[in-house]
Write a structure and sequence with these properties.
Helix content: over 70%
Order of helices and strands: HHH
Largest sheet: none
Structural class: mainly alpha
Radius of gyration: 14 Å
Strand content: under 5%
Distance between the termini: 22 Å
Oligomer: single chain
Length: about 70
Amino acid sequence: MPIQSKYSSQKIESILDQVMEVLHENEVSVDLSLMILGNSITHVINSQVPTSQRKAISDKFVKALSASINLKDK
């Protein structure tokens, strides 16, 4: 059963397009892109999630990220 998001696909896609455009405009490499996005995730968790919930949130994020990675070319 698919997970329903409380955010619209349109809003998610719009923000993602903006983030990707900034990376593209700055000709950011894959490794630097991952570093920047990883640091952003760390900042969000450390600044907006209560200390007692950070481990659980980060574990859920890692699980969701791993599940969303394509392991075969389309």
